[in-house]
Structures are given as C-alpha cells and as structure tokens.
Design a protein that fits this description.
about 5% strand; G protein-coupled receptor activity; Thyrotropin-releasing hormone receptor; receptor; mainly alpha; 14 helices; 2 domains; about 75% helix; GPCR_Rhodpsn; GPCR_Rhodpsn_7TM; 3 strands
Length: about 425
C-alpha cells in the first residue's frame, strides 16, 4: 500500500536544514513520525498546518505583491531601502510558493513528491530562505551607515549600490545551493507498523556526506553570521538613535533658555549686564543658525528616521519568529546522539520543531502588516497608490465615453444639437 506523507512533508523544511544527524533530511529524523505511535499533540499540529498554511500563503503572497507595487509604483522607488524591501518581499513569496506545494500533499495532491518538482522545491526553499535573511542583513547594514555615518549616506546608500548587492546575493545563493538539485528527490520509506510505504521529498541517501557538509555551511550562513550581525547592528543603531534624540532635546532646551536670557531685563548702567546680553545675542544667533541649517534637511532626516524605526521593528520581529526554529536547529546540530535517544524524546523534538516551524513560516508572510503598522510613509504611499489607480480607471472610463460620444456627435446635422447630446452623455 502506498501513501504520501502529510505532516511529515511539512517537517522537511526544517529537518533537512537542521545539521547533525538531521542532515539526512527526510531520510533521517523526518522518518521518525510515520514510524511512531501517533500523539494527540501531533494531530493538533496537523490540523493547524492544514488550515493555517493556505491562509498564510494566500494573505502573505498578496501582501508581498502589494509591497512590491508600493515600493516601485510610488515615490518610495527613489529610496535604496525600497529595493531591499522589494527583494525581501520577492524572496518571501518564493518561499511561500514552495510551502504551498508541500501543503498540497496534506490534501492528497502529491504534487510536491513528483520528480523534478521535488528537487526544484527544495532548491527554492534553501535559496529563498537564504536570501530573506541576507536581504534583512543588507538592509540593516545600510541603515547602520545612514544612522552612524550620515555624511557618507548620500554616496554609499544609493540605488545603484543596492542593485549590485541584491544581484550579487542572488547569484551567490543560486550557486551555493545548486547541489540540492541533484542530491534530493522523491524517496520511499517503509512503515512496518502499518505495512505501508511513505513517499516523501528528501535528500538522497548516497549523498549523505555532501548533504551534511552543505547543512553545516547553511547553518553558519543562515544562523550564526546573520543573526550576530543583526543583533549587533540593531544594538548600535538603537544606541545612536537614542543618543541623537537626547542631543536634539538638549539643543532645543538650550535654545529656549537662550531666548529667555535675551528677553530678560538689564540695568541701564551695568556694563556686565550689557556684555552678558551681547553674549546671549551671539549664542542665540548661532543656535538659531544651526536650527536653520537643520531645518533644511529636516524632511530627509525625518524620512530616514521613519525608515530606521521600521527597520528595527521588521528585524526584531524577524529575530523573534526565527529564533525558536534556529534554536531547535542548533540543538539538533550539536546533539549527534539524537538517533539514540528514547522514542519519547524524539517525539518531543519533532513536536516542538513543528511549533517552531509554524513561527518560522509566519515570518515570510507578515512583513506587509509590519510595514503598515510601523511605516507612516508606506501607509501614505499605499493609499496614494490605490487613489492613483482609481483616478486612472475613472480617467480611462471618461475618455472612453467621450470618444464614443464624439463619434456619435460627429454625425449630427446641427451644431447646437450635437452639443446638447454631448452634455447628456458626459453627465450620465
């Protein structure tokens, strides 16, 4: 009797990336669940995956597509950060597409386990998840430069540089994970308890050593290095933003105090008071000049501050949603004796990794909501995009009505008669 794995296929996305013994992917830990006694917790997870995943894929993909339209279809396209966020939305959508292919197995559509589809899905899963984390890193580095070294921002944080970085990361990911196109494929596992064969998409057993090496490299490139960079850079960005805000408040308070000093009364014959008044005037003049220079760039600084705040929220949520899954990966990565643990321990590992995987998957479909919540410019651009689309439709409709009316009016015999018909058609 043949069957296709259901929840087991969902576990693939994480188990094949876990390292250690899990480097066997679906042929290793991934086969634990079908051969073990079903548990109520696993049934709950399966139901959660069954209904939550299509909702996440649908809404997440729509949100990501809208994000690309907002970043490229409005004035935001002039910002280099828009290119990073658009690329992030594209890679997130690619991951959601592969997740949907896995979900189809749960409703008895074994598309994911077909030869060719299996290899491409695994390949895209690795590529898209790698790109997503490194696009966040690239965006974080750009924000760090803009906040910490504002004088270098115009020359370093450019659209051209962003394009080069995005293309380089994409080419690197495509080349780095290309081996998965031939070391993975549909696999068959025998379940002796139920006398069935489970068809799943996983890593080919003969490539176990290469898969282990690639998983270790992936573990370093998608966990240790990027998470360290994001945490360190976000900490430095937050400290800089807080320090700048404190200095700005201090300057405002000093300016107010200087104005009060200038407006104070002085004794008519007091030279000291006169000198103090002159010094106050000079100080007030210099401070006001500084504020005038500051106001010239206030719009740009305000925009950069809003982008920085949005980055901090997006990257912080990214860490929170990914950290549980990566923690499980780290535990499996260092636990080389996992296959010798008791069945209860193995069941618990599988169960908790499924919960972590749900959070991990959520990260790929939540950014649009984060942009709407934390990005004032994004919300305004989103509204402007819809209003622009609505105006364009109205203009095209009116133009179409006017054209048809002109053709009809051209056949009239009298000028005033033709004009009267034109007015009626336009009002309708």
């Amino acid at each position: 009797m043949n069957s296709t794995a259901s929840l087991n296929d969902f576990y693939f996305n994480e188990s094949t990336r876990a390292g250690g013994n899990a480097s066997e992917g679906a042929a290793g830990i991934n086969t634990l669940w079908p051969q073990q006694t079903p548990r109520p917790e696993m049934k709950f997870i399966e139901l959660l995956q069954l209904y939550y995943t299509p909702l996440l894929v649908g809404l997440g993909s729509i949100g990501n597509i809208l994000s690309v339209f907002v970043f490229f279809g409005t004035k935001l396209r002039k910002l280099s950060s828009s290119y990073y966020l658009s690329a992030l939305a594209s890679s997130d959508t690619g991951f959601l597409v592969t997740l949907f292919a896995v979900w189809l197995n749960m409703i008895d559509i074994p598309w994911f386990t077909n030869d060719g589809i299996c290899q491409i899905s695994i390949y895209l899963t690795y590529v898209c998840s790698f790109l997503s984390v490194w696009f966040v890193v690239a965006f974080t580095i750009e924000r760090f430069i803009a906040v910490r070294y504002p004088l270098h921002r115009p020359s370093m944080c450019t659209v051209a540089r962003a394009k080069v970085i995005l293309i380089s990361l994409t080419l690197l990911a495509l080349a780095l994970y290309s081996p998965y196109l031939f070391i993975s494929g549909p696999q068959i596992n025998l379940d002796t308890r139920q006398n069935t064969t489970i068809v799943y998409c996983g890593l080919v057993q003969k490539w176990k050593d290469l898969a282990t090496l690639l998983n270790h490299v992936d573990f370093i490139l998608t966990l240790i290095v990027p998470f360290s960079l994001i945490v360190v850079l976000n900490t430095l960005i937050s400290r800089t933003v807080w320090r700048v805000a404190r200095i700005r408040r201090s300057m405002i308070n000093n300016n107010n105090n200087n104005k009060l000093g200038v407006g104070g009364t002085t004794s008519a014959g007091s030279v000291n008071h006169h000198h103090q008044s002159v010094r106050n005037n000079l100080t007030s003049h210099n401070t006001q000049k500084m504020f005038q220079n500051s106001r010239r760039n206030s719009a740009g600084n305000s925009s950069q501050t809003k982008v920085t705040k949005m980055l901090l929220i997006v990257s912080s949520v990214f860490i929170c949603l990914n950290l549980p899954s990566y923690t499980m990966r780290f535990m499996i990565f260092i636990n080389e004796t996992l296959q010798y643990e008791s069945e209860e321990t193995q069941n618990n590992v599988v169960m908790w990794q499924h919960y972590c995987q749900i959070l991990f998957n959520t990260n790929f479909g939540i950014n649009f909501a984060l942009y709407c919540i934390s990005g004032q410019n994004f919300r305004r651009s989103l509204v402007a995009l819809f209003c622009k689309t609505k105006r364009n439709k109205r203009a095209r409709r009116e133009m179409s009505q006017t054209t048809v009316l002109t053709d009809y009016a051209g056949g009239g015999r009298y000028g005033n008669s033709m004009k009267r018909k034109h007015t009626i058609q336009t009002d309708s």
